[in-house]
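Notebook entry, structure prediction.
Reason for the run: the old model in the group folder had no record of what sequence produced it. Starting over properly, with the input documented here first.
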Amino acid sequence: MSFAHPERLALAALISIAFALAYAIGQRRTHVRSLAYSNLSFALEALRPSRLPAVALGTAFVLGVAALGCASAGPRFVVRVPIRDGTIVLCIDTSGSMAATDVAPSRLQAAKAAARAFIDDVPPGTRVGVVTFATDARVVIPPLEDREAVRGALERVAAPNGATALGDALMLAGEGLPTHGRRVVVVLTDGVNNRGVDPLQAARSLGRAGIALDAVGMGTNGSGLLIPGTTEPDGLDESTLRAMAAATGGTYVRVGDAGALRRAFRALAASTVWEWRRVDGGLAVALGGGSLIAFTLLAGLAAGRWP
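New structure, fully documented this time:
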């Protein structure tokens, strides 16, 4: 927390101390007058009262005054808020290697489960679309705010088959994004681009348009596995994925199991469309302080004493 006018805090502290001293003096004088003008039985009873209610009321009143003083200093809080006009396109690899079962139950099924978790975690108002890519790229669903429609689109993702046109997917995703607001492409792949546009050039194009790219690489690189249905070894081009993300100011993460993939997508959901922002808390603090003072006055009246 910070303050727009920190010099006012000292004044607020002095005022709070003055109220505390004035309250203590007032309570002592009231107590003395009660003893001076009471009968003996009342005086004896007055010697044994609990001071807890008076202390509680006085403390609450002083805290309320202190809150009003802090409000005048312009407190500012850093809070996490959803980014307005956020649009995200998930690019999911559906090439033949995504049928591999080293990530249970299969790479593609784990990817779809992680994508569903991602959709659940983004704040309301964020538009989410889905693009898949294998030998070519295609739009499964354009960016929408309708969560159910996007989840339903994941069930229409094609079975793993074909090559890996990663660059084409990035270009297609960029074409479906608006020209304003927070725009992010999240790509998940387990292989090496071997069709179409160079993915690094496509990523640089996204970066020039102000679109961030977050990349997730999955699988067991160097495992000796073959892409199902081919004699081509399974592999992950991590250097290109890192360079792609760096070209747009995005991030790259590598995952090796379904749990790590799900956590990575949840983290991306938190970082892509949420941001930490400094907000003015003066009104909230003033309302809190005023409410506390009002409550203290009412409680004091109900208890038969002024705070």
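Summary: The first helix runs from residue 7 to 36.
The old model has been moved to the deprecated folder.
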